[in-house]
Amino acid sequence: MKTLLFAALLLMVSPGFSAPPTAPKKVALSFDDCPRRTGTLMNGMERARKLTKALKDAKTGPVVFFCNSPSRQPDGLERLKLFSAEGHLIANHTATHPDLYKTSVADFTREIETAHDELKDLPGFRKWFRFPYLHEGKTPEAVNGVRDLQPNSSG
Length: 155
Ligand SMILES: [Zn+2]
Prior knowledge:
The chain is 38% helix and 12% strand. By secondary structure, it is α/β, with parallel strands linked by helices. The protein has a single domain, classed as TIM Barrel (Alpha-Beta Barrel). Strands 1-2-3-4 form a 4-stranded parallel beta sheet. Helix 2 (44-57) packs parallel to helix 3 (76-85). The longest helix has 15 residues, at 105-119. Zinc ion is lined by residues 32-33, 93, 97, 132.
């Protein structure tokens, strides 16, 4: 039995043994909390231009920006339009980034719908959602209440 096991191991490490071919590996890039506040080093539009240029230079292809309501930041909508114009995707991350562990399902639902209404007309918008803090609810009611949500019929 030991000999058989040794022979099997030897076969697996021999140069003739190879794993079955697989598809090329891919990485998905995403950014949360867009549009972010203006920082001390550069304003939001400068940051957006540098980021899109860096993504283009790196030839990443489309990335996903999970966004809060753009109306909360100066030039917020303009920055998201720049991301869209560069071929990137826009998705929902609630209006104000509340924590579902500390927010009612009804309030959280309104947050999603508010952001949806502000984002839905942007080119590249997808009906995708990322939970702020990755908190998907502490109770089955919270988890199911949000997961079963269908964005309003306006788009
Ligand atoms: Zn976030």
